[in-house]
């Protein structure tokens, strides 16, 4: 299953004592109306989209979202709306993923990492380890992405 960014949709509760829940409406690319796709929400004041609404499966366009308060008889309030300029969709997955075996013999195009020449970097500040002959400084040499510590 793809991973989609979640969005929290929240609102202030209706002041009417007969309200038993809310209803969410949504429409892609056009006005949201009482005939748009919808889902009952229950008596909550926030939902997480798309997680909390199983039927919420919009495509790639911007959304208009509407919300109504619902009373015990199923009557609905006027609809409040908001535009959602972001997408509630995921990109298409890449294709053609494969794993192949390769010839284990090394050739001139793939050098042995043990024999790759290194380029020393400038001395690092600070004191290094002390040997019997006195103090020494650290010099780092790179081997592609591997660093080796040499005492000079």
Give a brief rundown of this model.
This protein is mainly β. It contains no helices and eleven strands.
Structurally, how many domains make up the residues? Answer: 2
Reported CATH architecture of the largest domain: Sandwich
As a percent range, the share of strand residues is 35-45%
CATH first level of the largest domain: which class? Mainly Beta
Strand order of the largest sheet: 3-2-5-6
**N-to-C SSE series?**
EEEEEEEEEEE
Rg, alpha carbons: 32 Å
Q: CATH homologous superfamily of the largest domain - what is it? A: Immunoglobulins
* Count of extended strands: 11
Major β-sheet, in short? 4 strands, antiparallel
Which structural class do you get from the secondary structure elements? mainly beta
Pick out its properties.
Immunoglobulin-like, disordered C terminus, mainly beta
Describe the structure.
It is a single chain. By secondary structure, the protein is mainly β. It is built from no helices and eleven strands. It has strands at residues 7-10, 19-28, 37-42, 46-49, 63-71, 80-84, 119-120, 130-131, 134-135, 138-143, 146-151. The strands form four sheets. Strands 3-2-5-6 form a four-stranded antiparallel sheet, with no helix packed on it. Strands 7-10-11 form a three-stranded antiparallel sheet, with no helix packed on it. Strands 1-4 form a two-stranded antiparallel ribbon. The chain is elongated, with a radius of gyration of 32 Å. The model is unreliable at 123-150 (pLDDT under 50).
């Amino acid at each position: 299953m793809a991973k989609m960014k979640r969005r929290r949709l929240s609102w202030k509760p209706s002041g009417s004592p007969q309200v038993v829940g809310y209803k969410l409406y949504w429409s892609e690319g056009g006005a949201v109306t009482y005939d748009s796709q919808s889902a009952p929400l229950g008596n909550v004041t926030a939902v997480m989209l798309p997680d909390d609404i199983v039927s919420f499966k919009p495509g790639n366009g911007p959304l208009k979202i509407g919300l109504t308060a619902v009373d015990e008889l199923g009557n609905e309030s006027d609809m409040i709306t908001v535009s959602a300029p972001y997408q509630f969709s995921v990109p298409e997955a890449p294709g053609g993923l494969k794993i192949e075996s390769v010839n284990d013999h090394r050739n001139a195009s793939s050098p042995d990492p043990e024999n790759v020449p290194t380029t020393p970097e400038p001395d690092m500040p600070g004191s290094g380890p002390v040997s019997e002959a006195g103090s020494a400084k650290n010099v780092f040499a790179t081997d592609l992405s591997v660093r080796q510590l040499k005492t000079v």
